[in-house]
C-alpha cells in the first residue's frame, strides 16, 4: 500500500494538472489550458474541466468551476435554438456536472497552425466567411463572444473553422437589440473588431493585439484607438479590416459576412487587371509615338530629296 502511495505522489509531482478528485492528469493527455480550464483528450472527445493545480486553493477551484458552469449555460442557450443550430462552433456532445464533452479537432488551433503553414488566399477567404457566419449566428442567439482570438478558433479534419471557448461570453436576454447593446463595454462592435484582428493575423502573418482594456485601471472594455493598431495599407482585404476597426464600419456581423462573400479574390484580380491595362496603354502609347516619329522622318526625307533635286 505504501508503494502505491509513493507511485501516486510521483505522478502528481510530474503532472501539472489534477482533476477535481485529486488525481493527476497525464501531460500527454492535455490538449490545452487557459486561465480557468484545462482540456484533455479522451479518444475522439476533448473534455474541458475546471483548472486545478496540485497547489490550488479551494477558492480558486470553486471560481474555475463557476466559469465552466457559465460556459455550459452558453451551450444551453445555443442548443435552445433547435431549428437554427450553429455549425461553426466546436460540437458539444454532453454537459456533465463539472465538465463539457466536446468534439476533438484534429488540426488544433488556428494560431499554432499558422506557425507551420501558409494557407492560400482561397483557404483564407473560406475561413473568414466561416468566422463571420459563425459570429452572425452567435449574435443571433443573443450572445456576445467577447474573447475572439486565433487560439480560440480550431480546425477540423477538413480545415474548416470551429469556434471554441465561451467562458467569457455574455449571455443577453432574448429579444435584445444586438446592434445597440453594451455589456460593460462589450458589444457587437468589439466582437467585429476582434474578428478583424484575427483576419489581419491570418493575412499579415503576425499577431495583432486588439486591446480592449488599455491600462491596468480599465474597469470595462473600450474600443481601442486606431493608432494602437497596425497599418493595413497595401494589405489584401485591408479595406474590410479597416471597417472592422472602425466603430459602425459594419453595423453587424451580417454586414461583415456580406462584404466577405463579395470580396473573394476580387481585390487581387483588380490589381492584376489594372497592371494589364497599364501595360496595354504603355504599348499603345509606344506604337502611336513610333508612327509619329516615322511620319516626321519620312516627311523630312521627302523635303531633303526635293531640295537636292532643285539644286541639281
UniProtKB/TrEMBL annotation:
Coiled coil ranges: none
Keyword Ribonucleoprotein in annotation: no
Membrane spanning stretches: 289-308
Signal peptide: 1-15
Domain of life: Eukaryota
Keyword Aminoacyl-tRNA synthetase attributed: no
InterPro entries, sorted: Kinase-like_dom_sf, Prot_kinase_dom, Ser-Thr/Tyr_kinase_cat_dom, Ser/Thr_Kinases-Pseudokinases
UniProt domain Protein kinase: residue ranges: 25-265
Molecular function per GO: ATP binding; protein serine/threonine kinase activity
Pfam family, one: PK_Tyr_Ser-Thr
PROSITE patterns per record: PROTEIN_KINASE_DOM
Keyword annotations: ATP-binding, Kinase, Membrane, Nucleotide-binding, Signal, Transferase, Transmembrane, Transmembrane helix
PANTHER family with a match to the protein in the record: MITOGEN-ACTIVATED PROTEIN KINASE KINASE KINASE 20, SERINE/THREONINE-PROTEIN KINASE TNNI3K-RELATED
Protein name listed in UniProt: Serine/threonine-protein kinase HT1, putative
UniProt source species: Talaromyces stipitatus (strain ATCC 10500 / CBS 375.48 / QM 6759 / NRRL 1006)
Amino acid at each position: 500500500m505504501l508503494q502505491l502511495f509513493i507511485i501516486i505522489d510521483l505522478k502528481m509531482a510530474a503532472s501539472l494538472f489534477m482533476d477535481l478528485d485529486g488525481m493527476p492528469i497525464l501531460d500527454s493527455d492535455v490538449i490545452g489550458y487557459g486561465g480557468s480550464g484545462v482540456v484533455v483528450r479522451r479518444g475522439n472527445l476533448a473534455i474541458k474541466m475546471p483548472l486545478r493545480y496540485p497547489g490550488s486553493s479551494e477558492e480558486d477551484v470553486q471560481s474555475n468551476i463557476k466559469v465552466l458552469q457559465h460556459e455550459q449555460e452558453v451551450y444551453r442557450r445555443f442548443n435552445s435554438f433547435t431549428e437554427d443550430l450553429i455549425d461553426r462552433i466546436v460540437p458539444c456532445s454532453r454537459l456533465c456536472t463539472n465538465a463539457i464533452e466536446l468534439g476533438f479537432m484534429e488540426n488544433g488551433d488556428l494560431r499554432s497552425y499558422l506557425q507551420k503553414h501558409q494557407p492560400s488566399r482561397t483557404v483564407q477567404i473560406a475561413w473568414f466567411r466561416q468566422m463571420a457566419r459563425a459570429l452572425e449566428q452567435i449574435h443571433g442567439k443573443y450572445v456576445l463572444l467577447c474573447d475572439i482570438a486565433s487560439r480560440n478558433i480550431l480546425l477540423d479534419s477538413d480545415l474548416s473553422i470551429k469556434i471554441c471557448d465561451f467562458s467569457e461570453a455574455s449571455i443577453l436576454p432574448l429579444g435584445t437589440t444586438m446592434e445597440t447593446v453594451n455589456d460593460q463595454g462589450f458589444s457587437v462592435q468589439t466582437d467585429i473588431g476582434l474578428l478583424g484582428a484575427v483576419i489581419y493575423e491570418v493575412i499579415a502573418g503576425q499577431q495583432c493585439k486588439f486591446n480592449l482594456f488599455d491600462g491596468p485601471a480599465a474597469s470595462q472594455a473600450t474600443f481601442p484607438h486606431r493608432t494602437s493598431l497596425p497599418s493595413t495599407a497595401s494589405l489584401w482585404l485591408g479595406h474590410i479590416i479597416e471597417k472592422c476597426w472602425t466603430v459602425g464600419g459594419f453595423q453587424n456581423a451580417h454586414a461583415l459576412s456580406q462584404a466577405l462573400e463579395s470580396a473573394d479574390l476580387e481585390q487581387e484580380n483588380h490589381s492584376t487587371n489594372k497592371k494589364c491595362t497599364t501595360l496595354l496603354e504603355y504599348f499603345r502609347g509606344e506604337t502611336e509615338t513610333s508612327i509619329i516619329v516615322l511620319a516626321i522622318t519620312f516627311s523630312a526625307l521627302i523635303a531633303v530629296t526635293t531640295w537636292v533635286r532643285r539644286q541639281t
